[in-house]
Amino acid sequence: MTDVPRREVRAHRPAGAPPSAGGPLAYGGDYNPEQWSRDVWREDLRLMGEAGVTMVTVGVFSWALLEPVPGRYELDWLAEVLDGLHGARIAVDLATGTASPPPWFSRAHPETLPMTEDGGRLWPGGRQAWCPSSPVYRKAATALATALARRFGDHPALALWHVGNEYGCHNAHCYCDVSAAAFRDWLRLRHGDLDALNEAWGTAFWSQRYTAWEEILPPRAAPAFRNPTQRLDFRRFSSDELLACYIAERDALRAITPQVPITTNFMVQPFARDIDYWRWAGEVDLVTNDHYMDASDPDAHIELALSADVVRGLAGGAPWLLMEHATSAVNWQPRNIAKQPGELLRNSLASVARGSDGAMFFQWRASRAGAEKFHSALVSHAGTDTKVWRDVVDLGAALRRLAPVRGTRVPAEVALIFDWQSWWVLEAQARPSVDVAYLDQVHALYRALWHAGIAVDVVPPEADLTGQRVVVVPALHMVSDAAATRLHDFVAAGGTALITFLSGIVDPNDHIRLGGYPGAFRDLLGIWVEEFFPLRANQTVHLDDGATACVWTELLHLRGAQAVASYRDGPLPGVPAVTRHAFGDGAGWYLATRLDDRGTQRVVQRVLADAGVSSPTAVPRGVEVVRRVGDDAAYVFVINHTDAAVDIPARGMELLRGTQLDDALVVPAGEVAVIRESG
Ligand code: GLA
Ligand code: GLA
User: Most-buried pick from 413, 478, 585, 658 (CB within 10 A)?
Assistant: First the structure.
């Protein structure tokens, strides 16, 4: 590449480029011009201008066009696209194009195709058909990334590198022999020698003791339950292998374009659980996420808020970017529900409220062919005389008015511990009840906090909890000594913790912490549990405070704690179900069952009151209020999810409508307001 001095490259960087503060919010989406003719490209640029697009992601699935034959890169068409975008003052998030290798690659290297747990090979014909441990794939992918960086590293439109796409979507686990060898290398690093591995995996059980490394395999399909620690380590390994693929490309890019930030789009959303993003977050320059609404979830807008808070947690509280969401329906759920008028703006701005410095989509123009032709886009099949296009133009205008929020942060006094690894082990084979689901536990508590109007920082299990007043710990099944100590110290120093059942049960090798459950938190909670009494499917029990519960009960004994509520019926009448323990200067609350929503909300309210935490703005149910705070202003997002207008106390400037507010604001049904507070 031409050797351009670094400062000059920076100066050419378009104002739309994240993650520096001061520019506009990012607005745009995946742009796949290779699916269209050049006259459509010209039309695209015109329409992008009309919509106020500031950045697009180019080349995500372009490998087959960028490298049509092995080692020959054809990049001129992409140069033309980038030049056009630059001419239209649109920044480019340039993909390395490595998510899906071309057919020639799979044909030449069939050993790179992923193997399922029962030994079958997956075929090309969809996307992402590659083994995460394949050195052949990694070499080819890194070579393509390098070629793109050499050619486009000094292109003035280049604002951000987009490595791969949604790592772990479709190919999170490969069970082939190449993966097996890589797994053994990973295990050597983790456990050292075979004795340690045998101990960690508990191989004294079921005659599983290993005497040579070659005997160790990925947890392939077996006649009986597989070794749980082997499966856990394989999940950890698989997440790390994908991370290594990302890092290989990232480092190749960084060597050539050290001035250009690098990201890969995460999948923090309800159905994506295979990647331990806490291990990835520190490896990207900008945390970006893809999020799609689950059409079957009546509380999908609350799930969106949780996902956004998880992503902000991954970013360490710094601004992040919503890299993909949908203008309306997707095409991959059983019933793909179109968004109602106003829903797009609510969804986009709910993410912005929670720290996203923009709103990007899949995709710019709806495809005419291919597996995603029924997926919504900014430009739909029907064109621009449409609800979607009007919403798109409105959103562009709204984001322009919200430019001042860029770079601001969301303060919170309540933390929620989220842990992919606990999710994995809680839902592993052969557990006490299939009805205990990790996200259900997380959502139940989060929903209560959302309804209480409380901002939440999502943190990893070993996080420094200084500055928080309440820590909520849903189903943290697996916990390290270090994480348990942090939580004890936090409460001893005056914090308040709310911990739910099946937390603190196993150590990081998935071995039970003995001596009565929950081994890691017995002292903190002032209780011990003798035996689990899960409920039958659809069985409910009642508490003496009127709440209803399902899924879970357990034979709990007080050892210092006080019973807040006990069972009135079910298998354990009279046994405490909610407890509070004064511990040091703080309090440890325990929730030993799955309460209904009202019951959960009541417990959460009591815990918040116990800690003296309350919402800064009292709002009606169904109205979401979130604050982003900068050096010289605070921005209050009010999102009315109800079908009635609401009256909100407010002083300052309403940015979307440009009105000055002296004491109150009416937010109509389904609408959003953003107030720059004065005073
Ligand atoms: C059978 C087996 C036991 C044990 C139990 C579990 O009885 O013989 O080894 O696995 O199932 O219920
Ligand atoms: C993911 C992918 C996109 C597209 C969308 C469809 O987010 O990254 O390529 O498939 O899903 O919703």
Answer: 478
